[in-house]
Amino acid sequence: MLEFGIALGVFLTAHVVPSRPVVRRRLVGIAGEGAYLAAYSVVSLALLVWVIHAAVTAPYIGLWYPRPWHFVVSVAVMPLALVLLVAGLMQPNPLSVTIVRGPFKVHGPGIVAVTRHPVLWGFTLWGAAHILPNGDASSVILFGGLTLFALAGIPILDRRRRRTLGEDRWSEIATATSVLPFAALVAGRARVPRDARTWVGVILGLAAYAMLLFGGHLWLFGADPLALL
């Protein structure tokens, strides 16, 4: 459990500290925007892999016995989680987390029409979907902690972006999207995204889902979701 605690602490610190505006500006000033985003993405992925590995290898402390329907929930939720995560990372988004920069179209925002925080919602759904099928203490701490961490980031980013963008620009962009996924689409304030970037993100997200479902999850994490249904 010691390695798991250290890995989780390093992971959270690596996401909290660089997100501070003063720290981020200094790092970008040293490395440049592109190099900073590339390095941040690689480090984040590496730390996530370390945290998951540490949780899997930690001593097992059972809290409940997973039921078949727990795995059904996870398998059903993960396609949306991966689509939001992948498409969100690929989409320029002045309102939230992304790894790309470029012009943002208010009337054609891509996946941002679904929610202005697609990456954070992707992590939220991913974490929440893995709590029930993993009824041990380290998994609950890991996935529950990541779920709460992603959810807590939503209001923090909203306040920060509103301050940095200014009220007029914030209102112009935020009106065409929503915090809750699909809320702006249902309300008629946004249109279903049809741009090429979003469709590529959807395809890659679903491809990642298929890879994990049919052997990838077993190879990476030692558990086959289909065998547990």
SSE layout:
Blueprint (H helix, E strand, L loop, with lengths): L1 H15 L4 H11 L1 H25 L10 H23 L27 H12 L7 H29 L1 H8 L8 H5 L8 H26 L8
Helix pairs in contact: 1-3, 2-3, 4-5, 4-9, 5-6, 6-7
User: What pattern of helices and strands is seen along the backbone?
Assistant: HHHHHHHHH
User: Radius of gyration from the CA trace?
Assistant: 18 Å
The largest pleated sheet is described as: none
Number of strands: 0
Count of individual domains: 2
Q: What average pLDDT do the residues reach?
A: 86
What separation lies between the terminal Cα atoms? 28 Å
Strand content: under 5%
Q: Runs with pLDDT <50, length 5+?
A: none
Outline: globular
Q: Quaternary arrangement of the chains shown?
A: single chain
Count the DSSP helices.
Answer: 9
Q: What fraction, in percent, of the residue positions are helical? A: 55-70%
Give the key terms.
229 residues, mainly alpha
Notes on the structure:
29% of the residues are buried. The longest helix has 29 residues, at 137-165. It contains nine helices and no strands. It folds into two domains: 1-59; 63-228, no CATH class. With 229 residues, it is mostly helical. The protein has helices at 2-16, 21-31, 33-57, 68-90, 118-129, 137-165, 167-174, 183-187, 196-221.
TL;DR?
With 229 residues, the chain is mostly helical. It contains 9 helices and no strands.
